[in-house]
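Subgroup meeting minutes
Present: P.N., E.W., G.H.
Scribe: E.W.

1. P.N. recapped why we're keeping a running log of single-chain structure predictions: easier to compare across weeks, and new members can see raw inputs and outputs side by side.
2. G.H. added today's entry (150 aa).
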Amino acid sequence: MAARLVSMMEALSCAPTGAELGSRSVQVDNVDKPPRHESRQLVDNFHLVLSTCPTQESAERIARCVVEARLAACVNVVPGLRSYYEWKGQIEVSDEVLLVIKSRVELFDALQSMITSQHPYELPEVIAVPISTGFPPYLAWLSANMRTTS
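Output recorded in log:
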């Protein structure tokens, strides 16, 4: 398995050759890594906010609104979701579109307000999941592309 992975990576020119790998360990000396505390400090400010929408159109409308208002740096609109849930005593099955919203923790109240004001559901899903780690340049991009306060 490891040999197959190495040959695939060699073919893509993204790894040392099998001969360069030697005993299957690679020494990486010249990689610039930010100090752990810098990356951690950036991550503590961000979370993913998840919301499901009934249609592509409603999802795209909400995505555009939150990015234009700079309440999120990026929103992924993920179609093809099927949800099973209990609603008003009945088991329901719905095709939905998932929004994956990258935002700042301190913007949650304003973001939640915008989502719920634009959302067609009576009870929209708006939940946040902390980002525990991330690629520091991407986190810096997130920071640069949304407001700092609500």
